[in-house]
Amino acid sequence: MPPPQLNVYRHDRDTRALITLAGEIDLATAPQVSKALAECLPDGIRSIDVDLTAVTFCGASGLNAFLTAFRLVTDAGMTLRLHYPSQTMARVIEITGTGFLLHPVLTGRARSHRIPVAVGGVL
């Protein structure tokens, strides 16, 4: 069985960064996620959006990478939000009470079936 693969793409616009992840986030690939998010800190980025549309698996080490990055980013006065988790990942986020990582749905727009109403009243 080949090792899990994760592709990381970053697109900056002014003080915003969009990080698009594709593949599996596990013990072997979580350091790639941590590195991509940490590299935004010294680059003048103020807001980081992470697109999870193409993530096929995210284990505990992936969630830990997002939580660690959230703390670092928040301490630096920046924001970090996850977008479009799979239903499985959204359920894990809901169960673990880490819904604050998810981007809130804008008022007046239809709820996406891919973003749950998480613990803590995110939506």
Helix coverage percent: 25-40%
The topology string of helices and strands comes to: EEHEHEH
Task: Point out poorly predicted stretches.
Answer: 106-123
Characterize the largest beta sheet: strand count, sense, and whether it forms a barrel: 4 strands, mixed
What count of helical segments does DSSP give? 3
Mean pLDDT: 85
From the spread of the alpha carbons, the general shape counts as globular
The N- to C-terminal Cα distance equals 39 Å
Main sheet strand line-up? 1-2-3-4
| Strand proportion | 25-35%
- Rg (C-alpha, Å): 14 Å
Decide which structural class fits the backbone.
Answer: alpha/beta
**SS elements, strand count:** 4
Write the layout of secondary structure elements.
Blueprint: E1 6-13, E2 16-25, H1 30-38, E3 47-58, H2 60-75, E4 79-83, H3 87-96
Parallel strand pairs: 2-3, 3-4
Antiparallel strand pairs: 1-2
Label this structure with key terms.
alpha/beta, globular, 28% strand, 123 residues, disordered C terminus, 4-stranded mixed beta sheet, 28% helix
